[in-house]
């Protein structure tokens, strides 16, 4: 496991504990991990995951790590929903589907569950998991309110089945929720109803499951060999669920998108009177669409989210997080509760943000969660000039005493030999190259003892240079041998042939990771000479790069070119090419969820085999990879229009020889 993978795992773990209001580390410690990943891999998907994505990601990854429950496969995959955060986004979606009627339900804020039935009898309750496989928590489900153990339907009570009573074999979709009343009475120590419900439903001993409620919203048959699908529309389906004893949420039929928007406003106003948590509305057509329902991301239904939850607080202090050469302002404000979690700090990004917000110590600020783990200060709403103080911006490096440079978007120490900057750059190099056994303690020791002072110096180290770190005085006197020292030196020697992208990313240039350099390489800047000689304008014209990043990159090259060229010209580092790999000359674009690996790992696999990756469907793309090849998504449609093959994950892995 390299450092990036280790950081992904740690951040996901600690985000989960934060999300459940059971933080295992301090905010400052979490920020250090977050900042380190941002430096090593600025475009890492973990940095972009928000809200429920984080929680689901944690559950998904840990559901395969030897948990307490048996695994079970869903009868129909549980896909993720399209989302609209505001009326404009919702209206844009309605133009695609063009329904005559819109069926509107509550978007329940709980934990998804599939109830499986055979011949009318309940056999299994399966959590969402990764959408394909979840945890079998049947024993706990049996204790929950709202479960119908046996579906008994008299012929004269349900005309859908004519004169014959047919037992139900299939799945019932629902949400496990906890009411506000139960939360307040029994579980007020938990951050919110959703977190409490999530915890209880996964308890091995089942304790507390009796306090949970199942609310159902969908049904599908897996055995229709003797009859046609028995519902003519979604309304009839929901009525059937209610008739056989399931608890359902209210339905609303709207004749236009505008009616849906008005209904959303009404529900938002009355939200506090609803006995359980909802965080939006689910909108779909009245007509049942089984094909769309089976997609990873159904296109004919959407989650219309409520407006952002926000709170007003007072900014009390600003501390400056120091990562490498960069100083980042962190706002500290009076604790507020957002989405069930208590927050008291938010990044102010840079000095430009401080100035544009006109924020000061003592300012009344609007804080939103935006579904993220770390909240955002949106705006200042009130200034009491007598009680506010200007935010003090550092002007001197806390380590070397050099004058800091404030570019607006970045406040940093320009001193190349600043010990903090040197430490951070060498640490970045070690992590990007994944030089095993060269940990932070050893790095600090070799720097403190003047063994190294640059990246080049790493490759001059010998066992004798570092043996003292691994052996105590008695061991040194008896035999100057150390397995630890041997392993470190061997690992260093094993990392002398690397790709151009890895080489550049290892130099700790602000905002530049391997994916950023890949964009330049794919655009034809495929050698160190071409990169050094390129103008800012040429780099800025590369898709996904831009003027600011181009300027930062050129400055970084200017500062580090001497050492870069020394490493290469001396033969210390050799740049390898994957031009002869089986994917040489091929390009891939990934969309949707992958089942066997993360998207970042799939992209790394492509590059290791000589191929390139693209973020969008363009005419020179070789393959679009998706597990929903029949989707009518914009990427699928464009690929079909351009004649680009659309393949699934299994086919992709076959092409890769896996």
Descriptive overview:
This protein has 658 residues and is α+β, with helices and mostly antiparallel strands. The protein has 6 domains: 3-49, no CATH class; 71-305, 2-Layer Sandwich (D-amino Acid Aminotransferase, Chain A, domain 1), CATH 3.30.470.30; 310-412, Beta Barrel (OB fold (Dihydrolipoamide Acetyltransferase, E2P)), CATH 2.40.50; 419-495, 5' to 3' exonuclease, C-terminal subdomain (DNA polymerase, domain 1); 498-575, Orthogonal Bundle (DNA polymerase, domain 1); 587-655, BRCT domain (Rossmann fold), CATH 3.40.50. Helices cover 36% and strands 20% of the residues. It has 25 helices and 24 strands. The strands form 6 sheets. Strands 12, 13, 14, 15, 16, 17 and 18 form a 7-stranded antiparallel β-sheet that branches. A 5-stranded mixed β-sheet has the order 2-11-10-3-9, covered by helices on one side. A hairpin with a 2-residue loop joins strand 12 (310-323) and strand 13. Helix 15 (463-470) crosses helix 17 (483-493).
The end-to-end distance, rounded to whole angstroms, is 20 Å
Strands, total number: 24
Major β-sheet annotation = 7 strands, antiparallel
**What would the CATH topology of the largest domain be?**
D-amino Acid Aminotransferase, Chain A, domain 1
Q: Structural class of the secondary structure composition?
A: alpha+beta
For the record, what CATH class of the largest domain applies? Alpha Beta
CATH superfamily of the largest domain: DNA ligase/mRNA capping enzyme
Write the layout of secondary structure elements.
Elements lengths: L2 H17 L7 H14 L10 H12 L8 E3 L8 E3 L2 H11 L4 E7 L2 E8 L2 E7 L5 E3 L2 H4 L28 E8 L2 H7 L6 H9 L11 E9 L12 H10 L7 E4 L2 H13 L8 E8 L4 H4 L7 E5 L4 E14 L2 E13 L2 E7 L3 H7 L6 E5 L7 E7 L22 E2 L4 E2 L6 H15 L6 H9 L6 H4 L4 H8 L2 H6 L4 H11 L3 E2 L1 H6 L8 H9 L5 H6 L2 H5 L6 H23 L4 E2 L11 E4 L8 H10 L3 E2 L9 E3 L8 H9 L3 E2 L1 H7 L3
Parallel strand pairs: 2-11, 19-20, 21-22, 21-23, 23-24
Antiparallel strand pairs: 1-6, 3-9, 3-10, 4-5, 4-7, 7-8, 10-11, 12-13, 12-15, 13-14, 13-18, 15-16, 17-18
Helix pairs in contact: 1-2, 1-3, 12-13, 15-17
